[in-house]
Amino acid sequence: MLDQVQKTDKASAAVAHPLLELRSVTISFGGFIAVNNVSLVLEQKPVYGIIGPNGAGKTTLFNVLSGFIRARKGELLFRGETISHLSSEQVARRGIVRSFQITSIFPHMTVTDNVVLSLERRKHGGTRTFVRANWSDDHSAEAHDLLDQVGIPPSLRSEPANDLPYGRKRALELAISLAARPQVLLLDEPTAGMTVPDVNRTTELISRLSKDRTIIVVEHNLGVIANVADEIVVLQQGSVLTRGAYDDVRKDVRVIEAYLGKRQ
Amino acid sequence: MSMLEITNLNAYYGESHVLHGVDMSVDAGEVVTLIGRNGAGKTTLLKSIIGDIPHRTGSIRFDGTEILGLSPERICKMRVGFVPEDRGIFSTLNVFENLTIGRPNGRDAWPLERIYELFPVLKARSSQKASSLSGGEQQMLAIARPLYMGASFLLLDEPTEGLAPVIVDAIGAVIKQIKQAGLTILLVEQNLPFATELADRHYLLENGHIVREMTNRQVSEEEETLLEHLGV
Amino acid sequence: MAGAAAPAEQISVSYRPGIKPMAYYITLLFNGLVTGGFLAMMSLGMSIIFGMMRVVNFMHGSMFMLGAVVVFVFGSYFGLSLWFGFFVAAILVGLLGVILERTLIKRLYGLDLAYILILTFGLSLIVEDIVRMFFGVTSAPFLVPDMLKGAVNLGFAFYPKYRLFVVVVSVVLCAGTWFALERTRLGALIRAASERPNLLKCFGGNVPLLISGTFFFASALAGLAGALAAPIRNVSPFMGEEMINFVFAVVVAGGMGSIAGSVVMGFGSGLVSAIAAIFYAPAATAVIYILMLVVLVVRPGGIFRGIDISHFALHYTPISERARRLFMSPPAALVALAAGLVLPWLVYPVLATDILLWGLFAVGFDLLFAFGGLLSFGQAAYWGTSAYVTGILMVWVGVPMPLAVIGGVFASTLAGTLFGFIVARKKGIYFSMITFAFASVVYFIVNEFADYTGGEDGLHGVIRTPLFGIDLRNDHVFYYACLIAVGLTIALVLRLLKSPYGMALLGARENERRMMSIGYNVYGLRVKAYALSCFICSIAGALYALNHQFVTLETVAWRASGDPIMMTLLGGAGTIFGPFLGGGIVLLMRNTLSSITDSGSLFIGLLFVAIVMLFRRGILGEIVHHWIDRRSATGLGPNHDTSQPEKAPMKVAGIGGIADA
After folding, report:
1. d(Cα A128, Cα C84) in Å, to the nearest integer?
2. Which of A227, C30, C67, C127 could bond to C89 as cystine, CB 3.0-4.6 Å?
3. Counting beta carbons within 10 angstroms of the beta carbon of residue C294, is it exposed (0 to 12), middle (13 to 18) or buried (19 or more)?
4. Is C195 within 8 Å of chain B by CB?
């Protein structure tokens, strides 16, 4: 019910404004320009893939979109509203939730508590102090549902998150993000370092999750990108080199050069 | 006999097992590249050779000596030079201090004049803070450093990464000259044309395994397939 | 006993009646430079060590004191000249620094920064207590060599030659150090090792040697500063404590790890303190702290750009989630309650109440430490403030006892909450140093308003009165009243920790970025935790005033901030009841050992060192770790990766890897 209301809201908003828009955003560290005057409009699509060689500015772009780096030059808009001035937690509360390149979970908490923490924040703000002792039971159905979705079996759920194997940790991270019920989900190299079965599982999961939201993926594994992305944005040296469908981008001479160097 | 002979090398980063039974060798005077997708273990392999990865098993022989258990200082003194992926510039040091941070070691150490001849920019900027150099200039500095120390074997980690095409060409020219000067080079590279132009042989690394050894011709012919391997 | 007005004391020394006012002021400014010279030399060494090894060396103040003591001993017992004394002091203190680095500090590289802070804190207690056994407070003007005796005409005034000499030497040493660091090859190597130690190894640099050399130099500099100070300041075991307070303030304000920052702020603080003293003599000390607080609010990273340590969050994970749940379960509370009920029949009731209240104080500290990931070195500010406000309300205002307690707790918690808004933005070692400095300001205020607080004599006449017909004057009765109050507070703490807020606080300690990315306001969580901690410390403090029926300066002194840290670590951080156990052990030890050494702090210091080096989980933490965690770990399914080596309980992520140096 609530979902539906949200969806219609989304739909009507999308007509008027693009989902996300960067207007001439520049980010520099010291003298190094990581993102160079980028203007980019992202619509309400299931999956965007962001690719580009190392140092192209992909992670910096993610940091800007999620408020971890504030765009001092330029502007960032979410559904037509400027969010450049917001802190990362405020951006997250608007519904833009990110993951990190390095697995980012709460290692000493149990697997379920990792998800409960995120659910509690979304439903009750996360700072309730005087509640009955078994408050987390309220979340358990939804937590287990999310863990089912990302494929973490019940037998592992009361272990400390740190004891999960690597692929499961990444899945858990995804569940934490999903618990925040994002409208936009930013995934930074979700399959990095994964084994082939894990990669396949993650790819399927991304496709499934994108039915309810827009997912933006930074990924080195172009196989994954080819499978899931509806549109690809290619970055090079802090600028947008080109964008388009996978097959077009793949054949673009500039893209091949950016990755492989110029033919002599 | 090979200059560098690696057998059954395993390396670990914390809990993750990064290199799985790597076997490879580099002969004196050769330029060999490692190609593979990000996260395949190329940088880990270079760091394992220089001794910067504490947790390793297997064998790494350099000039006939087992160096697996040695500290980076010792390996460096055996004239193995390292150019790390991030160029390894000490940002609080000026260009000259960066260049001369290691001591010249042996007769083959390049005198400053010879280095400045190959890298004039390092002379012009010698008293500038190294962090103020452009990416290409920093790369030059990073390559010059082991030459000053008299390295006979160079580990080069993605020297063209993030650089403009003109600069990439310049770096290529420099590496060629270094090769002509008789140095042996193990190069990590994703830029295939760049790699084939410089190298004699290639190893393809995938998920911490060496999956193939390739010639220049094979690399050029199979570029399409390799794109997949490189994740492009 | 801490934070005494050293600069002020020194200023009065050179005042001579009959000098023209202008010359008098200039003389004061020169005295400011002398103070500044000591501060600069000390801060410089502290900064170099921090820059290189990310070590906050609490021992640095003791090094200063040892330098002075060495010079005094060699001068007065062996009759050696001061020139030779300088040399010997620098070498001996430098060697002590190297020995400590090689034997103890080295073993903690790669662990949380807080461990080294605690280790060096313990070492400084040991050193100071040992010196106290042989040494009282003396002055040693006779040490000044003949050629530096008398005064020199500066044109506008006569100024003592020796003081001028101190200014010149400190300026030359600071300039020389700067030159060596910035303009020589050795300096380049040191900077390279500070920046990327592991990379330097790949170029053949001998990093461990550079580290030891740096430790030698910085310690020698501190020893020399102490030696220089010996003839013009009181030589006493306490001079290091006074100094380290200022040095913390200077280094934080100057920018941690910035050479220029520590030198400029060192001399600057000396001058500002001298100028402040012109208007109001006692402000000489406070102004340094105020300067620091202002800098931190206006320019959080310090005046000069130092090393960004804000992301060096505390990674203290003393006990497992499983163990934590065990301690938070009803059986644990029942066992603790049973112990609480019998305690006053095992030790005399005033001591039993002390154990209870110090334990609660430590729980307040531990809430921030084990659950919030913040190591406060200044919680005594609230323990003491609450005790004093309660006392003052009763003695000077005549407020009835229960209202006075409420007033004391309220005032102290309010102060803590306001300060919390500033300090909760800081993390890691920054947080520790700022809370330490804030506590020093509170100490200063309490000492300054001696008319109301009684100053060094303490505030007497805080008499317990009956409450609701219960005679609290009886020590046993008062104990049980306190037990109820403490029990209720612990119940509140348990409730908090089990609530969503408690879980969020743990989450922020575990992974701050992740918390922000799912929408948590981490800053807000920390402000609240700080306020809660202050509230708990304040309750303990107010009751403590009633227990002894008078309040001493000791309650706001820096040792009072150190005690709860040790009690917590000893008993087991994060174990809720561990701090009470730790408090009991410490107080009993102090009670029995104070007859052997002056204050027992030698043993306390040894305990500190032992905890940090040997059992970092604390008594309860280690017991649970060995009996519960180990056993269940072997019983886990195939998914439990037993191949990985047991991790150190507190590992730092994201520190430039000096770990394997």
Report:
1. 66
2. C67
3. exposed
4. yes
- Token pair listed for A57: 């500015």
Chain C contact set for A109 (CB, 8 A): 321, 503, 506-507, 510
Q: What is the pLDDT of residues A145-195, one digit of tens each?
A: 888 888 888 888 888 888 888 788 888 988 999 888 888 899 888 887 677
Any chain B CB within 8 A of the CB of C279? no
b/e per residue, C627-645, with b = 16+ CB within 10 A? eebeeeeeeeeeebeeeee
Judged by CB atoms closer than 8 Å, whether chains meet at B192 and A223 is answered as: no
pLDDT tens for residues C143-187? Answer: 777 778 878 877 777 888 899 999 999 999 999 999 998 899 999
Q: Coil, helix or strand for C313?
A: coil
What's the whole-model pTM score? Answer: 0.80
Which residues neighbour A253 within 8 Å (Cβ) at sequence distance 6 or greater?
none
Domain CATH number, residue B54: 3.40.50.300
Nearest residue of A to residue B168, measured between CA atoms: A261
Question: CA nearest B226: which of B214, A175, A121?
Answer: B214
Hey, what long-range contacts does A84-87 have (CB within 8 A, 24 or more apart)? A87/C516
Q: How many residues does chain B have?
A: 232
Residues of B in contact with A49 (CB under 8 A): none
Is C517–A92 a contact, with Cβ atoms under 8 angstroms apart? yes
Which two tokens mark A144?
A: 């287990």
The single-letter code of the amino acid at C41 is M
Q: Count of alpha carbons within 13 Å of A207, Cβ hemisphere only? A: 10
Nearest to A166 among B16, B193, B230 (CB): B16
Q: Which domain holds residue B190?
A: 2-230
Strand order in A32-42's β-sheet? Answer: A32-42, A20-29, A73-78, A81-82
Distance between B134 CA and the closest CA of chain C, angstroms: 20
Residues of B at the C interface, defined by Cβ within 8 angstroms? 14-15, 50-52, 54, 71-73, 76-77, 82, 84, 88, 90-93, 97, 100-103, 105, 145, 149
Residue C125 to residue C220: CA distance in whole angstroms: 20
CA B94 to chain C, closest CA, distance in angstroms equals 9
Task: Give the Cα separation of C433 and A104 in Å (integer).
Answer: 29
CB contact under 8 A, C196 and B102: no
Facing residue for B38 by CB, picked from A30, A220, A256 = A220
User: pLDDT tens-digit profile of A228-259?
Assistant: 888 888 888 788 888 888 878 877 777 777 66
How many Å apart are CA A47 and CA A202, to the nearest integer?
14
Contact at CB, A113 and C516, closer than 8 angstroms: no
Could you tell me the residue ranges of all domains in chain C? 20-244, 348-577
Long-range contacts of C331-337 (CB under 8 A, 24+ apart): C332/C576, C332/C577, C333/C490, C333/C494, C335/C577, C336/C490, C336/C577, C336/C580, C337/C487
CA–CA separation, C505 and C367 (whole Å): 10
C200 Cβ under 8 Å from any chain B Cβ: yes
Question: Given strand B4-13, what is the order of strands in its sheet?
Answer: B16-26, B4-13, B56-62, B65-66
Task: Compute CA distances C109 → B13, C211, C218, C488, whole Å.
Answer: 19, 12, 18, 40
> What was the ipTM of the complex prediction?
0.92
Query: To which residue do tokens 């320009």 refer?
Result: A33
- DSSP-derived secondary structure letter, C301: T
Q: Provide the domain count of chain B.
A: 1
Check CB contact of C204 with chain B, cutoff 8 Å: yes
